[in-house]
Amino acid sequence: MLLHEDDDGVVCIGQASHAWVSGQLARRWGNDRFAPPDPFDEVCLGAEQHDVGMAEWDLRPELNPETGLPRTFLEMPLETHLHLWAAAPDKVITQSPYAALIVSMHGRALYARRDTDEPGSDDFRAVAAFVAQQELYQQDLLRNLGEDPARARRNQILVWALDFLSLAPILDWLPDTLVAPTFPGQPDATLRVDAPDALSVTIDPWPFDQDELRIRYQGRRLTERFTREPDLHRALATAPWVTVTVTWRQVTP
After folding, report:
1. Which end of the chain has fewer CB atoms surrounding its CB within 10 Å, N or C?
2. Could you give the angle at which helices 97-112 and 122-145 cross, rounded to 10 degrees?
3. Longest C-alpha distance within the chain, in Å?
4. Alpha-carbon distances of 219 from 58, 198, 208, 245, 251, rounded to whole Å
5. Domain coordinates in residue numbering, the chain
């Protein structure tokens, strides 16, 4: 769950909606400096489905008693987060094993970067077990698909970049920089990402095939806070749907 505050309340945007934006960005990725996704449809699907493990949880999210709102993905207990991510790749594998590979690689990358756990702690062991499980899962898919590990790795870096680009304007993470693949055999690029205005993003160098992109997120608006989880769930199930539109554009010379 992503929470976007505006003057009229809080828009609760499901992880699947943000991932759908990642998929739309993937379909527009590529120009003279940046290669399009390859294999195109499979990578775009993987980007679109990379948070598929969260879709059902977002229907009835846990209440954060400190905010009176749904817990965001950044506030979820480790055990819950690991459980959802461990189940995620199989939710898409019968649709596309390559998309399942993308989902698994994204989940592994999330936890391979985690360095806050005390070695030997329960959390440390749980994360290590998850990473090892996903690595075995990926090895099996790479072998059966006959996929080049280097190409899969480029695609993982690309989906990581798309994930950030679709999260950052909603969560006010900008300005920042991130790494993105260019062409096979060529060095990765460092993208400078800024927010000159609310819900407006600039990227330099520009990685897309259009001069400007406008993409919609959809979520449900809450106008009150809650002390009981059942009340939150009832309100969320009947809250009005609203659209949040973000614009991505090139840096003006």
Report:
1. C
2. 150
3. 54
4. 11, 17, 26, 11, 29
5. 2-250
Task: Reduce the DSSP state of residue 116 to 3 states and report it.
Answer: coil
Q: Does the pTM of the predicted model rise above 0.70?
A: yes
H-run or E-run covering 122: helix 122-145
Q: Distance (Å, rounded) from C-alpha 48 to C-alpha 92?
A: 11
The per-residue pLDDT for range 18-36, each reduced to its tens digit, is 999 999 999 999 999 999 9
Contact 99, 92 (CB under 8 A): yes
Q: Euclidean distance between the first and final Cα of the chain, in Å?
A: 36
Q: Is the dihedral of CA 127, 106, 206, 150 positive or negative?
A: positive
Cis peptide before 39 (omega within 30 of 0): yes
| 97-148 pLDDT per residue, tens | 999 999 999 999 999 877 666 787 899 999 999 999 999 999 999 999 999 9
